[in-house]
């Protein structure tokens, strides 16, 4: 029967009638039909369906969708002869997701947090949504919120009482100081939290500079490095995972590595501020820590924003001295520098989306000039695309909530 030419033109009718006859024959012979759910729904075994197709009786299927019509007055043209049409890989959300080259996750984010000795959280006027957090309560709560959405790395910046500041910044290595106390507290509550610390004298200096200032205004390099080594060891002893010299003194990475190893802290990493520029984007940060220089500026130790190749000199020095991570600061205005370091080093690259970048996006959002959330996410993706493995950003909590699908 299957090979005859008497099969009906409609495969649906044919399959249905053939199956009815087969069942009737089996019923008469006392056979029990035990078909699978697939066979029962289609009426045929797989072999019988194949035989039907071979015989030219194809089962029905939906027709192809109609070709969408162009708007009226669209010119009728001969299509361009193109062997490559990149838009083919962008034509749907699923295509775009499949071919996306850069990804962003909460694990890529490091959350900078300001802390102070008080119990109350104090808002920072120039940085909407950011606070000087009380180290006992507000800071712990903020860290817990960040961990809930996958951000498990933080970096601490202290607002030190003026009475504890001095020209040589000795409070920086006080093991009962604000930062070491805070590290011990956080490690007690969150043992697997990754804590980055800032190694520099400016929060502790009565002059507001990253190093010791000579009476003629010169920042003393080697004497400052001596202090920074003691600061890094004190932070490591408290439980810091990564110490981050942000001072831009020459030779400080190698000296800190030697000091850490001598005290048994071979496991503590160094994230060097490799290319830290003398930028105008730092203004809100200095308000947050009340650490503006009392005189002069930081151009004799931070890099000239006009310089590109100089970043390679700093990269080579930091690598040779034992840095584990190289950081570029600021972030978005220096995408070319991030890419330069990425192309010339196999070490992880960090980017710092600084306070000025954060505040501009926040201000634009408040004024309804931009979509704050979309610009925030795009800016972070741009930093990743340029080559940053991790991003220090005040948007860490907000961005992670977006990535996790939480509504604002």
TrEMBL record:
<dbReference type="GO" id="GO:0005829">
    <property type="term" value="C:cytosol"/>
</dbReference>
<dbReference type="GO" id="GO:0015995">
    <property type="term" value="P:chlorophyll biosynthetic process"/>
</dbReference>
<dbReference type="GO" id="GO:0008270">
    <property type="term" value="F:zinc ion binding"/>
</dbReference>
<protein>
    <recommendedName>
        <fullName>Delta-aminolevulinic acid dehydratase</fullName>
        <ecNumber>4.2.1.24</ecNumber>
    </recommendedName>
</protein>
<keyword id="KW-0479">Metal-binding</keyword>
<keyword id="KW-0350">Heme biosynthesis</keyword>
<dbReference type="InterPro" id="IPR030656">
    <property type="entry name" value="ALAD_AS"/>
</dbReference>
<comment type="pathway">
    <text>Porphyrin-containing compound metabolism; protoporphyrin-IX biosynthesis; coproporphyrinogen-III from 5-aminolevulinate: step 1/4.</text>
</comment>
<keyword id="KW-0150">Chloroplast</keyword>
<keyword id="KW-0456">Lyase</keyword>
<dbReference type="GO" id="GO:0009507">
    <property type="term" value="C:chloroplast"/>
</dbReference>
<dbReference type="GO" id="GO:0004655">
    <property type="term" value="F:porphobilinogen synthase activity"/>
</dbReference>
<comment type="subunit">
    <text>Homooctamer.</text>
</comment>
<keyword id="KW-0627">Porphyrin biosynthesis</keyword>
<comment type="function">
    <text>Catalyzes an early step in the biosynthesis of tetrapyrroles. Binds two molecules of 5-aminolevulinate per subunit, each at a distinct site, and catalyzes their condensation to form porphobilinogen.</text>
</comment>
<keyword id="KW-0934">Plastid</keyword>
<keyword id="KW-0021">Allosteric enzyme</keyword>
<dbReference type="Pfam" id="PF00490">
    <property type="entry name" value="ALAD"/>
</dbReference>
<dbReference type="InterPro" id="IPR013785">
    <property type="entry name" value="Aldolase_TIM"/>
</dbReference>
<keyword id="KW-0809">Transit peptide</keyword>
<dbReference type="GO" id="GO:0006783">
    <property type="term" value="P:heme biosynthetic process"/>
</dbReference>
<keyword id="KW-0460">Magnesium</keyword>
<dbReference type="InterPro" id="IPR001731">
    <property type="entry name" value="ALAD"/>
</dbReference>
<keyword id="KW-0149">Chlorophyll biosynthesis</keyword>
<comment type="similarity">
    <text>Belongs to the ALAD family.</text>
</comment>
């Amino acid at each position: 029967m299957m090979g005859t030419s008497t099969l009906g033109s409609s495969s649906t009718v044919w399959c249905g009638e053939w199956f009815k006859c087969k069942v009737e024959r089996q019923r008469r012979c006392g056979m029990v039909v035990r078909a699978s759910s697939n066979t029962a729904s289609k009426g045929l075994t797989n072999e019988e369906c194949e035989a039907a197709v071979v015989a030219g009786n194809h089962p029905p299927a939906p027709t192809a969708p109609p070709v969408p019509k162009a708007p009226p007055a669209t010119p009728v043209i001969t299509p361009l002869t193109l062997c490559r049409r990149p838009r083919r890989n962008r034509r749907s959300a699923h295509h775009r997701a499949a071919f996306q080259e850069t990804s962003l996750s909460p694990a890529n984010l490091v959350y900078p947090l300001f802390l102070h000795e008080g119990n109350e959280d104090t808002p920072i006027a120039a940085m909407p949504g950011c606070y000087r957090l009380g180290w006992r309560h507000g800071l712990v709560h903020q860290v817990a919120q960040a961990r809930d959405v996958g951000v498990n790395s933080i970096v601490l910046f202290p607002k030190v009482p003026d009475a504890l500041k001095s020209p040589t910044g000795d409070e920086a290595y006080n093991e009962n100081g604000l930062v070491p106390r805070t590290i011990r507290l956080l490690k007690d509550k969150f043992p697997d939290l990754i804590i980055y610390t800032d190694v520099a004298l400016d929060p502790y200096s009565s002059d507001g500079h990253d190093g010791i200032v000579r009476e003629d205004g010169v920042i003393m390099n080697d004497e400052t490095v001596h202090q920074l080594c003691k600061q890094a060891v004190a932070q490591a002893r408290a439980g810091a995972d990564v110490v981050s010299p942000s001072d831009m003194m020459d030779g400080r990475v190698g000296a800190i590595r030697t000091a850490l190893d001598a005290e048994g802290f071979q496991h503590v990493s160094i994230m060097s501020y490799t290319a830290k520029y003398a930028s105008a984007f730092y203004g809100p940060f200095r308000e947050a820590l009340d650490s503006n220089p009392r005189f002069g500026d930081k151009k004799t130790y931070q890099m000239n924003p006009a310089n590109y190749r100089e970043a390679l000199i700093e990269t080579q020095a930091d690598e040779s001295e034992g840095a584990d991570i190289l950081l570029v600061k600021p972030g978005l205005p220096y995408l070319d520098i991030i890419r330069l370091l990425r192309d010339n080093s196999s070490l992880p690259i960090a980017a710092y989306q600084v306070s000025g970048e954060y505040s501009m996006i926040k201000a634009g959002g408040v004024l309804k000039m931009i979509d704050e959330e979309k610009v925030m996410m795009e800016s972070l993706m741009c930093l990743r695309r340029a080559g940053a493995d991790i991003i220090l950003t005040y948007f860490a909590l907000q961005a992670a909530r977006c990535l996790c699908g939480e509504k604002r």
